[in-house]
Design goal:
By secondary structure, this protein is of the alpha+beta class. It contains 15 helices and eight strands. The strands form two sheets. Strands 1, 4, 5, 6 and 7 form a five-stranded mixed β-sheet that branches. Strands 3-2-8 form a three-stranded antiparallel β-sheet, with no helix packed on it. The chain starts with a helix and ends with a helix. The protein binds a DNA duplex through helix 2, helix 3, helix 6, helix 8 and helix 9. It catalyses: Hydrolyzes free adenine bases from 7,8-dihydro-8-oxoguanine:adenine mismatched double-stranded DNA, leaving an apurinic site.
Length: 354
DNA sequence: AAGACGGGGTA
DNA sequence: TACCCAGTCTT
């Protein structure tokens, strides 16, 4: 039996039921694919359900504000996905009359849609014979064929894509693509796959040569930089608080936060804050800052290790504070703003009223 | 070609 | 800790 037939037979027995597998409509499939980039199904699923409920059609998503989209995306990470999602929704709704492109080539021109996602939508919705290559596919192919080319090298990306195209069942590219990804996710898992019950075991090079644990190969990742973040929570008795929007480049773009003072070393006193203050906040405000968490919160990202401290400044009335940057906004509805997870956790711990 | 970009699950 | 997850975009 051919490789793709074994895979599809396995899939028909083992496939999970997922909401985006009930349909061939591009909107929910596009939405799910964007959400699942570098994201486990278990983590993405509740967000998918939330989005479909809030935005049943691409027009509803297009009509929403970016702030609203980011708020619903809060906690899922890689926020450029949400910004690109919203951009593309507006493009499809207003420039394409709500009709998604129907080919791999045209889909790939959409913002946020790369090789994988274009292949997924083209095959799932329109049965175009194009092969998906995601983390699951890399792992399954690398092991089955015993390929040790690093999957994140330029050469590896080309090699695995070519191989995937060759293996594709062109009569049912949608089923085949689903099958190989599901196989990687459930059977050919990163750690301790249960090779004893694998339908491909007999021809699997990695199994026969005991290479399962060492494949796939991957180039070393970049090193993690450490940073010290001091968030200054300025509030009055009515729980009005200052927020600023992160703009420009860098993490958490277009999300909100308390005014931030970044320091090269850990700040222990309000004097330390003054030393690191980049002419952002008035000195008389900072002198009143009291440290909320003596032990910094360690917040790990894929490329950063953040040490986070929150400082509290209570004032009489927020709108009487002088010499503040114009970029700050005042709110007593902090729960309506999209914030990074580390700030959301503080908000819940501190007990802002909802 | 290498980095930037989040957060959570797992061993 | 370290690695991984239905990757894409920028430099």
């Amino acid at each position: 039996m051919k490789f793709h037939n074994k895979l599809i037979n396995w899939y028909l027995e083992n496939a999970r039921e997922l909401p985006w597998r009930d349909t061939q409509e591009p909107y929910p499939i596009w939405l799910s694919e964007i959400m699942l980039q570098q994201t486990r199904i278990q983590q993405g699923l509740p967000y998918f359900l939330k989005f479909i409920k809030a935005f049943p059609t691409v027009f509803d998503l297009a009509k929403a504000s970016e702030d609203k989209v980011l708020k619903l995306w809060q906690g899922l990470g890689y926020y450029s996905r949400a910004r690109n999602l919203h951009f593309t929704a507006k493009y499809v709704a207003y420039e394409l009359n709500g009709i998604f492109p129907t080919t791999y080539k045209d889909l790939k021109n959409l913002k946020g849609v790369g090789d994988y996602t274009a292949s997924a939508i083209a095959s799932f919705c329109y049965q175009e014979p194009v092969a998906v290559v995601d983390g699951n596919v890399y792992r399954a192919l690398s092991r089955y064929f015993g390929i040790d080319t690093p999957i994140n090298s330029t050469e590896g990306i080309k090699e695995f894509k070519t191989l995937a195209e060759k293996l594709l069942d062109k009569e049912q590219p949608d089923i085949y693509n689903q099958a190989i990804m599901e196989f990687g996710a459930l059977q050919c898992t990163p750690k301790s796959p249960d090779c004893a019950v694998c339908p491909l075991q007999i021809d699997c090079v990695a199994f026969r040569q005991s290479l399962v644990e060492s494949l796939p190969r991957k180039l070393k990742k970049t090193k993690v930089l450490e940073r010290h973040y001091n968030y200054i929570v300025i509030l009055d008795s009515r729980e009005n608080v200052f927020l600023e929007k992160r703009t420009g480049k860098g993490i958490w773009k277009n999300l909100f936060q308390f005014p931030l003072i970044e320091s090269s070393k850990s700040c222990e006193t309000s004097e330390d804050l003054l030393m690191s203050n980049d002419k952002i906040l008035p000195q008389n405000i900072l002198r009143e800052a009291s440290l909320y968490n003596a032990k910094p919160i360690k917040h790990l990202l894929s490329h950063r290790k953040l040490w986070v401290k929150f400082w509290i400044v209570e004032v009489e009335k927020l709108n009487l504070v002088e010499n503040l940057p114009k970029s700050l906004l005042i709110t007593n509805q902090i729960d309506t703003f999209a914030v990074p997870v580390v700030i959301q956790k503080f908000i819940e711990a501190y007990g802002f009223s909802k």
